[in-house]
Write a structure and sequence with these properties.
This protein has one domain: Winged helix-like DNA-binding domain superfamily/Winged helix DNA-binding domain (Arc Repressor Mutant, subunit A, Orthogonal Bundle), CATH 1.10.10.10. It is 63% helix and 8% strand. It has six helices and two strands, in the order ααααββαα. Strand 1 and strand 2 form a beta hairpin. The longest helix has 13 residues. It is globular, with a radius of gyration of 13 Å. The chain starts with a helix and ends with a helix.
Length: 100
């Protein structure tokens, strides 16, 4: 399943084919290190809290992250789906870095 073409297409769309993809990559990068809440992500990345909320919704909708807890105590984690497809995500990251 590591080279699933549907997963590859979805990852390309979420992280490279739509506005805000680079910010979503930054969020995933932070969550790879440690689970965080929205406020911690906003502080770490230097984005507005509302912008982080928007990107979190996009990532959740596309099954890239999962959450544990409720309201202000919600912590976000990388989803199992993304962990399985991490090699594809790293390939996309590499191609995006070269295109800068």
């Amino acid at each position: 399943m590591a080279n699933d073409p549907d997963a590859k297409r979805l990852l390309w769309f979420v992280f490279a084919g739509s506005r805000g993809g680079l910010n979503r990559l930054k969020i995933i990068s932070q969550l790879k290190q440690n689970p965080k809440n929205t406020n911690q992500l906003a502080n770490e990345i230097g984005l507005d809290y509302k912008a982080i909320q928007h990107h979190i919704k996009v990532l959740e909708k596309n099954n890239m992250i999962t959450k544990v807890g409720e309201k202000y105590g919600v912590m976000y984690f990388i989803s199992t789906y993304l962990e399985v497809n991490m090699e594809t995500l790293e390939e996309i990251e590499g191609k995006l870095d070269k295109s800068k």
